[in-house]
Structures are given as structure tokens and as C-alpha cells.
# Entry
Amino acid sequence: MKGKEESKGSSRQRGFYEKHIKRPQDFLCASAALLVLSPVMAATALLVRVHLGSPVLFTQERPGMGGRIFKLYKFRTMTDARDEKGDLLPDADRLPPFGRMLRATSLDELPELINIWKGDMSVVGPRPLLVKYLPLYNARQARRHEVRPGFTGLAQVHGRNSISWEEKFEWDVQYVDNITFLGDWKIIFQTALKVLKKEGITSGSSATMEEFRGSPSSEDAGGNRL
# Structure
């Protein structure tokens, strides 16, 4: 159950659940899920190999708690189709029906159970985003890195990709300030319902989610509202 237990530079007070129960609970949940879902993961890996080729896994560096970089694992959902100049085509052109199905059912996320087991991630927390977004956050948004990133989170049960970046970050910070046992399990059950209903998979104007380019300045350097 490795992984840093403290967020760098954070003065936030953590409750008993976050300090002593959340990480062991994550480890046990990930271990059980990997055992139970191993046939599903094996079948998915085989189908990815048949439909999309190799590699089966998509890996990418993402920032975790305290901004620490880790390698995120997912099942591949896109092709490597390129234009005549050798540049990758837009996401919508590289996301085939099979890849859309994996995303709609969240099967592409199952390898993240390995990240949870290792301690890079938690079952519930702000979703791990791109490293290049780190310098774009304002002080309030950057607070999402005071905790481990999650397999799911408040933003995922309140719109997922159908809400704006600013709304996502507000849900993330709200979660950081209100981590409880009952709250985590409520999010887990709400996530299961969202997956079954296939809600919030796209942003409405993109196959996935538009790139984050920073928010209009609305806080001072200390994170206070202006």
C-alpha cells in the first residue's frame, strides 16, 4: 500500500477516515476488484487487440497527490490514424464504435485498478488530468491535488464530460473539503448508476472533452475570491 499520505504544502486538516481508513479501504477494494474482474479484463484486452491492435494498454503520465507524477493505465480506445502529413487525426476520427463502447461502459478504465492498488490513485477523488494542465490552474483549482486522484469523483456523478472545466474543479474542491466514508460510498453507487445510464460521456461538442486552457482570473495569489 505504498504512496505518500500527505499532500505537499497543504495545511488542510484530514479527518479520521481519510487518515486511517480510506487508503486501506482502497487497497482492499482494488485487490478484490482485480480478482473478481480479471476475466472481464482479460476478455477486454483480447477484444482491444483484435479491434485496435497493439499496444492493448494506453499509458500516460498524470499528476497525482501533491503533483507527483505517476503512470496511468487504461485500455486503448483510439486508433493511430494519421493524415498525409503524419499528424494524428482528431479524436472523433480516431475513436471507432468499439472504442466508444469501451468508454460508454467505462471498461477502458478498469486497468486503473492497478493504480489504486499501487497507491497512485484512490477509488474516489478528483480525476487525474494531464500534466500540462498543472501551470494553468489557479490557486483554488490546484487544491484538487491535495488528495489522491480517483477512479471516480463528485464531478463524475454531477455531469462528467457534459459540464464545464470550472464546474468540474468546483466539485473537486468541494470533495477535498468534505471527505467522508458515507460520502465516498454514495459517490461509488451514484457512479454505478451513471455508467448503467451512460450519462455524461461526451461534452456535447467533442468526442471526449475539450482541452483545458485555463480559467479567467477570479482569485488572487492566495486563492481568495476577487
